[in-house]
Amino acid sequence: MCGAKAGGPDLAGVDVANETIIQGSVTRDGEPVNGYVRLLDEGGEFTAEVPTSATGQFRFFARPGKWTLRALVPGATVDRVVVASQGAFTEVAIAV
Amino acid sequence: MSRSDVLVDADWVQAHLDDPKVVIVEVDEDTTAYEKNHIRNAVRIDWTKDLQDPVRRDFVDQEAFEKLLSAKGIANDDTVVFYGGNNNWFASYAFWYFKLYGHGDARLLDGGRKKWELDSRDLVAEVPVRAATEYKAKAQDTSIRAFRDDVLAAIGTLNLVDVRSPDEFSGRLLAPAHLPQEQSQRPGHVPTAANIPWAKNANDDGTFKSDDELRALYQAEGVDLDKDTIAYCRIGERSALTWFVLHQLLGQTNVKNYDGSWTEYGSLVGVPIELGN
């Protein structure tokens, strides 16, 4: 069932080896920030968005390749480019 | 129908928080978001429990819809303002659903929950109590709802608009990337569908682009607005947002939302599917 839960989907029951996971956290001065993270493809097209969790975390199930993460928080927007691969966790720490 | 009849901004909502004839309704993809907090006096509709038949894959019937709205304290002559997370995906879905059952005055909060949060506006945990009503719904208006046979008949003749991301359209992903990738359907899209992702309708903060920008978007993608149009996505919520743009903001009367969408079409035996961009 659909559910853009804060922080993104949990890993219970997920075959991690077959997934391309991009995850991380959004912080300001070292403290977690409540906001949103968008996943944009190589053409800059929106692919997904999740609200950050109470601890500032987010997670996506993508596909191997280059992606842009865009953090949207009150008063700031920050982009980070990442390269993700299957069966691996791509960890991204975004400071705003 | 025009933008000012169906779309309100946060200041308008703020000014009507205590208006007894305005019902603010939160509809979230994450159905627990309301429990954490919500706009003051907003009621919740749970799209998974309140709007779906508990056994078959279909909507609740007219009588159940009447019971639902009566219990929520929504009257036929109330102005219902929908908002929600994920850039109003499910708020648009509920808007379309209310129109399917003939509700009169329905509106969307531009930007939904995200813009409200990014603007640091107040959210509360207190759940309002509204007196029950005796809501009377109309029979479903199927001029705005497409079924699978409508989609098959539209291939090569009508506008088919696939509003999913390019990765889903091409078959590289089976679901939006905030979900585990499912394997139950075949990947791809309906042949002759144009890929106009829902996100092209909106700014980063979730607000809709201007009518001129929206009209130009569909014209640039080769959508002949004089022809009938069917919009689809994965389960019909993102395409409800595109339906809202075409039918409510741009005033196109010949637009249907296919709520079966890819989870139905991609599971059908023997239908044509295209892969790639």
Automatic annotation (TrEMBL), chain A:
What is the designated name of this protein? Answer: DUF1416 domain-containing protein
Q: Which Pfam families match?
A: DUF1416
> What GO terms describe the biological role, i.e. biological process, of this protein?
carbohydrate metabolic process
Q: Which organism is it from?
A: Kitasatospora indigofera
Automatic annotation (TrEMBL), chain B:
Name the keywords, alphabetized: Repeat, Transferase
Q: Tell me which residues make up the Rhodanese domain.
A: 18-125, 154-274
As its record notes, the protein acts as a catalyst of: thiosulfate + hydrogen cyanide = thiocyanate + sulfite + 2 H(+)
Q: Which SUPFAM superfamilies match?
A: Rhodanese/Cell cycle control phosphatase (SSF52821)
Q: Which Pfam families match?
A: Rhodanese
Entry-linked PROSITE patterns: RHODANESE_2, RHODANESE_3
Under the GO molecular function aspect, what terms does this record hold?
Answer: thiosulfate-cyanide sulfurtransferase activity
Q: What is this protein called?
A: Sulfurtransferase
The organism named in the record is Kitasatospora indigofera
